[in-house]
Write a structure and sequence with these properties.
Blueprint lengths: L8 H12 L3 H7 L6 H7 L7 H11 L3 H4 L16 H19 L1
């Protein structure tokens, strides 16, 4: 059964995705999905991602699975919080290159 409350998994997935600067379509392509309908379904809490997909989303959004699952409200656990501005830019550039490769 999917988590349905406003502060649940779906909501946190949507917030994490938008804060990471990705569209649903971009995330779907990076995960190898044919469309964004699965990402949309997770964010609307109509379905929950598998544990493996949740780990991939957490890594992509650079945030802990504990935060996504609502086990903590501390979103300062962002994985890129320890990076300096130059390192963040390099990381984002690499992400854009990966996305571009997946689009081809």
């Amino acid at each position: 059964m999917a988590i349905k409350n406003v502060e649940g998994l779906g909501y946190r997935l949507m917030v994490a995705r938008t804060q990471a600067g990705y569209s649903q379509e971009q995330v779907a392509k990076m995960l190898g999905y044919k469309s964004d309908s699965t990402i949309s379904s997770h964010e609307k809490a109509n379905s929950n991602p598998s544990a493996f997909t949740l780990m991939k989303l957490a890594a992509l959004y650079r945030i802990s699975t504990d935060y996504l699952l609502g086990l903590t409200n501390d979103d300062s656990l962002r994985l890129d919080s320890r990076l300096n501005e130059r390192q963040r830019k390099l990381l984002h550039q690499l992400e854009r290159e990966i996305l571009h490769e997946n689009e081809e």
